[in-house]
Each structure stands twice: as structure tokens, then as C-alpha cells.
Request: fold
Amino acid sequence: MEIKGKVAVITGAGSGIGRATAERLAREGASIVVADVDEAGGAETVRRIESAGAKAIFVKTEVTSESDTRRMLETATGKFGRLDILHNNAGVATGIPGFPKAPLAQWRRVIEIDLTAVIMGTWLAAPIMEIGGGGAIVNTASMAGLYPHSLDPIYGAAKAGVVNFTHSLAPWASERGIRVNCVCPGIVDTPMVRKGVEAAVKAGHKSWAPSNILQPEQIADAVVRLVSDDSLFGCSMEVRPSGPRIVEPRPAPGSRR
Ligand SMILES: NC(=O)c1ccc[n+]([C@@H]2O[C@H](COP(=O)([O-])OP(=O)(O)OC[C@H]3O[C@@H](n4cnc5c(N)ncnc54)[C@H](O)[C@@H]3O)[C@@H](O)[C@H]2O)c1
Reply:
């Protein structure tokens, strides 16, 4: 897919990986709907994109809300005329206490944001993309969804759900001209990780400083590749400091590309 002239919706675009992807897709010539619960963060992402000469609009979005998600997608078609790219990226870790001390409401919320919202965003965006002639969806999973993640099993379960949803959906989506893939980052230097380390230290855990930490821009590069390479669908792209790698590509036999 040629990104220039396309319209992208990115959730969690007020910070970290979502902001880096929003800025990168804008530089490639897309118009961006910046979706986040965080108004200040979202406004800052829009300011950065506009000051670089590209187009963006912020829509305050709670990704677990169906009405907010509909409004977010309608903003793409209403303001920019179409919807070509959806990056289901907003996410949270369980935090401290984790499993099993985290109360039910806390871990249900993690599953709602990290998994249910990805399914809902896809469910609502796919018919719009199909009418518009197709599109590309990239879900932010994690290496925690590909390998055991004993530090946060709830988060790991949600992200594994995103990986499997992506693989399983690919044939249905590609019949509608939609490519769906997921990116699986290792540890990335974002506020999520910095807050997690701070909370762990406060809770008396030993301080932890990973040596091989990725920058959000490296994940943005992987997302751009998943969006623009028309041969990729139903893939997980693992992103480690050694570079990106496709894991378990599941091409759908006979599917449209
Ligand atoms: N940082 C890492 O090491 C890492 C690794 C693998 C995967 N990820 C995933 O990458 C994605 C982005 O994380 P990040 O590291 O950039 O974190 P971040 O905290 O910098 O950004 C997450 C953004 O999502 C928004 N958000 C959270 N809950 C929301 C909700 N309910 N509705 C709307 N917006 C919401 C936040 O306001 C924030 O702006 C997440 O899905 C995360 O699980 C992060």
C-alpha cells in the first residue's frame, strides 16, 4: 500500500509507540486520526504532526467504549473522507500488584483494553474499509504474546489473544481486501515501561535496567512495513534489538491481496 494520501487511525497515539507511528505515517504522507484517552498527550501529537506540515485531528477515545470507537472511525471518514489504516495500539500492563493479588476489576480492565478493544476496533473498521476498497490493520501485540511472560501473565494472555486473533482473522479479512497483521515488540523505552519500573522499585522489587531496549521509532518502522508490504497478512512481526523478524506467517490460501 502506498501510504501517501491515505488516512490512518491510531489508538494510544498520545504517547510512546502510538505517537511515534502517528508521526512516521504522517511523514509518509498520511492524514492521522490521533485517538487516546489522554487529551494532553493527544493534543501534543497533533501539534507535532501539524508543525511538520501534515494533517492530524485528535479524538478523545476510550477504546473499550463502542460509541467512542465508532466516533473515532467516523472522524476518519467525516474529516478526511476515508479510512485506510487502523493501528489498534492502545494498551496497559497489569501493574502492581499483579496476578494473583490484582483484583478482578483490575485484570478485567487489562483484558478489555489490550484484547477486547482490538477485536472491537477491527469489527467496526472492517466494514468501512471494505466499502472503501480495502485497507490495512496493524494490532500492537507484544513478545509477551509469543512467549511466556511470567512477570505479567494477564498481559501475556491478552497479547497472546491479539496474536491469535490476528492470525485467525487473516483469511476472513483478506477476502474483504483487508490485510491484518500484528507487531510484537520487545522492551521499548516508553512511559509504560518507565512507570512499570518505577512502580516495581517502589514495591520493593530490585531495580531492573534492560540493556537492549528498543526506541518507539523502531516499532513505527515495523508498523510502516506491515502497512505498506502488500504481501504480508496474518503475520506477527517480532521486533528485537537485533532487528525485525516475521514469526508464524499464516497466509490464507486463495485469499485476495
Ligand atoms: N513499551 C513496551 O515495552 C511495549 C512492549 C510490547 C508491547 N507494547 C504495547 O505497545 C502499546 C503502546 O504502549 P507504549 O509502550 O507506547 O505505552 P504508553 O503508555 O507510552 O502509551 C499507551 C497509550 O495508550 C493510551 N491508553 C491506555 N489506555 C487507553 C484506553 N483505555 N483508551 C484509549 N487510550 C488508552 C494511553 O493514554 C497512552 O497514551 C501497548 O499496547 C503496549 O502493550 C509496549
Q: What stands out?
A: Residues 104-131 form the longest helix (28 residues). Residues 56 and 229 are 24 Å apart (CA to CA). Strands lie at 7-11, 31-36, 56-60, 85-88, 135-140, 178-185, 236-240, 243-247. Helices lie at 16-27, 39-51, 66-80, 104-131, 153-175, 191-202, 216-228.
